[in-house]
Amino acid sequence: MAEPVYEMPAFRDETLKVLAPGHTYKTVTDDISGVVLRRPYDRRWFVIMAIAFSLVSVLHLAIAYLLLRGVGVWGINVPVMWGFAIVNFVWWIGIGHAGTLISAILLLLKQDWRTSINRFAEAMTLFAVACAGMFPLLHLGRPWVFYWLMPYPNTMDLWPQWRSPLIWDVFAVSTYGTVSLIFWYVGLIPDLATLRDKAKNSIARTIYGAMAMGWTGASRHWHRYKMAYLLLGGLATPLVVSVHSVVSFDFTIAVLPGWHSTIFPPYFVAGAIFSGFAMVISIAIPLREWYGLKGFITMRHMDNMAKITLATGMLVGYGYMMEAFMGWYSGNPNEMFTQLYNRPFGPYAHTYWMMLGCNVLAPQFLWFRYFRQNMFWLFIISILVNVGMWLERYVIIITSLHRDFLPSSWSMYHGTIWDYMTYYGTIGFFLFLFFLFVRVLPAISITEMRELVHETQHHGGGHHVGAHGTAAPTSEGGA
Amino acid sequence: MHGHDEANTHGLYGVLAEYDSPEELLSATQRAHAAGYRKMEAYTPFPVDGIAEAMGFEKNGVAPIVLTFGLLGGLTGFGMQWYSAVVSYPLNIGGRPFFSWPAFIPITFELTVLFAAISAVVGMLALNGLPKPYHPIFNAPVFDRASADGFFLCIEADDPSFDREQAHRLLEETSPRSITDVGLTSVPAQETMATRREGIAR
User: Which domains are delineated in chain B?
Assistant: First the structure.
């Protein structure tokens, strides 16, 4: 065959390969399924689960008290009726976006380094969406009638208000949750078949077997499977962009100073990917360390993810700059007050400057390879970004609401203990689900790792890349 | 349906050969196809490029299903909003138009994606005949490796030109790791298989 084969420059750094050398079909299968099937329980896992489950109990308590007493237990009051609930909702849903970006967009872009991180990033998406979905529902005040948000034939003879971005949000988030779940499940089917065939325990074999639905790996099945997976990737790509755009419409459709801005959709999407990659990094570092997965989640992955964090962080920084500029350029006194005085120098100035420190300053270290490849510093930076992105939503929501057009209705907002308990509770819920996932399902796609083994064998360790296949040539190509 | 020789194929699902690499499987498939076998299937731990062409199939019905349901989802979303805002429950707010279609776009888009995505998964599974917890191929003890590191080719007994001896001879020429007869039922066929394998061990 006359396919163009070009030689890639050898990696300057051997650690920048997508897969440690020496892996075969058998070793990737055994190593990754072994984390689920063979590995004994270790103390670190118990400690994390204990902490996480304690926080889940705190969440239960906070929700029970909320249902008992009503949303008044939270700090929300006129004029700030969107407090922690919406801050947390936007924060969690944003975190989820990296999972879809990795699994769908990098799939379409044929980036081979997505392979080791897509599975757990997708799991992260699902769990983040589960946490996100909780907040608007609880914020309803009467969450047990949440189905009023959906169009259904009802005795009240009412329809949802289609012109409201809040209803768009219901559709966007529920579609996103559903599509993320089925995308993740479709990716899991062949791996569940592997677990079915590897499991010694008959209960495990039955459960994995039922979930694998009798997958045999027949070539006709793979043919349809690949097409379905590719189409799901193609559908999820515009979906992920639409979801955070719709979330940003919750703000921009309102005429509030600091919200009514056309930069919001792209700036929110960039922020979502920024925070999501930071969360993937925060999770990947302990995961690869504790479960012996450094051969799969290599320095190349960490390096590329750090670069994406840097790039999206710069976009977010540009967003902040443009918000301030447009506030000034609009000539609108309320915009100017919000953007140029109240945010940087008002009563919430500390959150604004902390946000800039975490989201704009901290990622600048990622220009240097030392910080991208030093797991301690990378972890610190990723945590700072997570904190910073939470503060960003706090700044956007609280500073715009607490001082709008009418100074007589200005007020201050502070979260109460129940706000904090609910927020930290969802972090516990997220960690609980994630660490449970790591022990019951393969955290890395075994099937795609076998494909990667095949490609690296085929192409001499990734240095020679043909025109076909999914190999992405260089370590520098990712960011 | 059994093949032409009832005694030869009785209780037999097919003859299964295992290979170490996708390349070996691919060339064996090409040989079997050239020898006239059509009822055969390759089982691999990951999708292998070129198998579809080697086995002589190209199209799968997934894409048209997804297109159909995507369009249907979009029409459903838009139609639902139009019906409720214009026909069923028109609200006059400051004389603004009832048919404010730009506001209907986000939900139309979301339902397009939702319908298309669900149809991609359900359509793929339905065309594949899944869920199907039992399949005769699972009767072969070596088949465990099809989800790990084994690449399998099964020539099925209901192929019109199937002959057990010939199928064995053909597969042996492709130097597989092993050749196994796959029974239609699990236990008795495995016993006969074990005795038969004595004669065909490479």
Answer: 6-57+135-200 (3.30.70), 62-127 (no CATH)
CB contact A185 to B (< 8 Å)? yes
Question: Chain A residues with CB inside 8 Å of B97's CB?
Answer: none
Give every CB contact of residue A362 below 8 A, 6+ residues apart in sequence: A381, A384, A385, A388
Nearest to A197 among B55, B137, B148 (CB): B148
For chain B, say whether A448 makes contact (Cβ under 8 Å): yes
Domain boundaries along the sequence of chain A: 11-149+161-464
Task: Specify whether the CB–CB gap between A430 and A127 falls below 8 A.
Answer: yes
Mean pLDDT of chain A: 86
Q: Does domain A11-149+161-464 have CATH number 1.20.120.80?
A: no
Contact B121/A182, CB-based, under 8 Å?
yes
Residue B192 pLDDT > 50: no
pLDDT the model gives residue B2: 42
Which DSSP symbol is given to A163? Answer: T
> For residues A190 and A446, what is the distance between their CA atoms, to the nearest angstrom?
8
Cα torsion at A429, A430, A433, A438 (round to 10°)?
-150
pLDDT, one tens digit per residue, over A328-340 is: 999 999 999 999 9
The yes-or-no verdict on residue A464 having pLDDT over 80 is: no
ipTM of the complex: 0.86
